[in-house]
Amino acid sequence: MSQSLVIVESPAKAKTIEKFLGKGYMVLASFGHVRALPSKQGSVDIANDFEPRYQVLPESKKHIDAIKKALKGADRLLLATDPDREGEAISWHMLAALGLDKKNPGVDIQRVVFHEITKDAIIHAVRHPRAISGDLVDAQQARSVLDYLVGFNLSPFLWKKIRYGLSAGRVQSVALRLICEREKEIRAFAEQEYWSIAARLGVTPEQEFMAALVEVGGKKLGKFDIPDETVAAALKAALQTGAYRVEKITRSEKKRNPAPPFTTSTLQQEASRKLGFSARKTMSTAQKLYEGVNIGEAGTVGLITYMRTDSVTLSSQALKEAHDVISAAYGKEYALAKPRIYKTKTKNAQEAHEAIRPTYIAKTPAELKKFLTPDLYKLYELIWKRTVACQMAEALLDQTSIDISADLATAPGAGPFKGARRAGMRASGSVIRFSGFMKLYIEGVDDQDEEKEGLLPPMQEGAGLKLHELLPEQHFTQPPPRYTEATLVKTLEEYGIGRPSTYASIMNTLVERKYARLDKKRFFPEDVGMVVNDLLTAHFSRYVDYNFTAGLEEELDQVSRGEKQWKPLLKEFWEPFSTLLKQKEGEVSKSDLTTEATDEACPECGKPLVVKLGKRGKFIACSGFREGCKYTRNIESEKAEETAEPVLSDEKCDKCGEPMLIKDGRYGKYLACSGYPACKNIQPLNKPKGTGVTCPECEEGELTEKKSRYGKMFYSCNRYPQCKFALWDPPMEKKCPKCGFPLLVKKVYKKKGEFLKCPREGCDYTSE
């Protein structure tokens, strides 16, 4: 009997696939990548036409050995790694790691591709194998080598010019630029005041609606035409005397179509908006749904199709299933007579797989809920609803717009509208006539609430209206919002920068490297991130340019389509990049990047103070630090002092007697002497609790309770650092009868008892 060995990436799906294939098949996992460029200089031989020097990963050796052993009894090798460029490259690397000769491998080698882990999909893939795509492998090799050339040449440059341990990346640095430039826009933003006026009008006493002022004296109102309260008050006074009537009613039918099924990018965005998932969490949760979940009698089944895709197309089988589910659950009026087809934007036909969808649309979220963890259920429900909704009938809305005229008995007495005798208002409302897909799902909107439909009372043209109330409202223009994970992913995709499957790791790197932090789900650049970005945009502007990076991505796509060779592409990139790098080595000074001058003098030595970049961000230091002046000051504490008045405490400074102030620092609140800078005494706000036990080592201090960095309680002398005596166990006032040291309370956990022990080295006293 012939034996086939199948190689997949993940062990989680190996058993499921082996069960689907049955006898004659053995399925083993590569556990991801098997070969990679070592993280060291020289991994790419630039002089030898950019030849990569791959090495088998240490953690992969045992898996390779297991595959080699299994291969001895097989006459066919099926490479079933993931259906994308990376998966294609892993299959190619696997052959090299196994040492299989291309001309005479000694075994039949085939590449099989499936986009869902279902029995039908697996069997179909095995029956229709193909060869490894050299173009996809070359595109992935080009990407890896490009990332290596940037990372292992630009990162050491950052170490020399800013600080050791920093990193730069081909796509990472562009994402950082987006975050930093948005922050600069926010800091430079100057708010502008403006006003709006709304009226609460009524047809009858029971029927009221809101209308907005849109025209005064025949002039259409612009956003800033009511600039302040004075003009708003003059208009309100004039509008109070107006006679209101319905001038014109416009009714129209509005059709609304559903959003397409999920791609990798749109899934990350929507999961962020609706579920609060990070991109990383979304992808790891989707991976579990793809690889399979045990759903009772049916066993372990992949619940969604492959989650790394740019495609919005659905298979004919999926379209039929969606139609049947919609007809059964909502009625035939909600189902389409002909499927709605979405077009894939990606130019790379070889990667134009299906959209992310449930493998069995008939399996509703409610049906599977008992088998899923809360996170798996939430993401499955989101994918299921989006897939089904995209094949539901369009929504029909009746939109009504009402133009209202107001004849003013009293003209505005001041401002740009002085003398105006007429004003215009407008009210708009929508009524959902047929909900269609909106009955199931509405796409989220960034930085806004989802649409809310208004309702207007019935009225006729020419009808008079009663004014109930005028509502002037003050507004201020707002700066552009900081990026969330969803909006950053959306922007990167709009520019065509990177691949959606890499966005989660890019954002994670920015946070791990402390280039940016996520606070209330928004990206804030850190000081070091701003400095790195300033360096890259000033001296390597071409390589963090949005269009250049997007153009390079298109060239990689051309390689994957066989339209361009990968090594000439690397040469085109490397020659100008390496020349510029050498040039900047001599031009860029570390002090110019990490030190900023101020107009303030050092209070200790009189030399100018400077702003320096340290490990924890920027701080103020004396420029005479090389001559021995150690004066420093925390910028963050300074900023906090500027925005909040210091709070006077009941404590007195134990050095000068002045009152102590409660201040807020990097590590929380603390006490600082109000006599600063004459007295620089600071103390913790919550002083350590004393034990009443005299320190046995110095016999001057008191042993006090303290917490270690991991939160564990210990007891140390309050004269630290002069005395460094410390204990883990609680000390007692009672002293050892042998040596006079304070005794410790020791607990016997199993017996739930306590005993006393002397901690002094060489003393063996223990109580009963």
What does this structure look like?
The protein has 768 residues and is α+β, with helices and mostly antiparallel strands. 32% of the residues lie in helices and 25% in strands. The chain is built from 19 helices and 34 strands. The protein folds into five domains: 4-132, Rossmann fold (3-Layer(aba) Sandwich); 165-185 and 483-526 and 538-587, Orthogonal Bundle (Topoisomerase I, domain 2); 194-248 and 401-431 and 464-476, no CATH class; 264-393, Topoisomerase I, domain 4, CATH 1.10.290; 690-757, no CATH class. The strands form ten sheets. It has a six-stranded antiparallel beta barrel with strand order 9-10-16-15-12-17. It is globular. Helix 3 (85-98) crosses helix 5, helix 6 packs across helix 15 and helix 9 packs across helix 12 (374-389). Mean pLDDT is 86; it is low at 348-352, 448-453, 637-644 and 747-752.
Helical residue percent? 25-40%
- Find the count of extended strands (DSSP E, 2+ residues): 34
From the spread of the alpha carbons, the general shape counts as globular
How is the main sheet built? Answer: 6 strands, antiparallel, barrel
Q: List the uncertain runs.
A: 348-352, 448-453, 637-644, 747-752
Tell me the count of domains: 5
| Major sheet strand order | 9-10-16-15-12-17
Helix-and-strand structural type: alpha+beta
Going by CATH, the architecture of the largest domain would be Orthogonal Bundle
- Looking at CATH, the homologous superfamily of the largest domain is Topoisomerase I, domain 4
CATH T-level fold name of the largest domain:
Topoisomerase I, domain 4
